[in-house]
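WARN no homologs supplied; continuing
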Amino acid sequence: MLLPIRCFTCGKLVGDKFSEFDAKVKAGEDPGKALDGLGIKRYCCRRMMITSVDLIDQVLPYYAQKTPNGP
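OK structure emitted
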């Protein structure tokens, strides 16, 4: 998964906090409270954390299929 290292809007470092955020959310904690606990207060940085998704699992099935004119 390609995670953003810095917030696109303000430039704050957010990449080092994503694994903790992901673990807390998977453990059942509310995402808003998890972000508050990590010290992420700005809405632009919160957006970066909440909207990051792992797209490789969605793209991989299309990569594995063979095309009619290809190998």
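The chain has four helices and no strands.
OK
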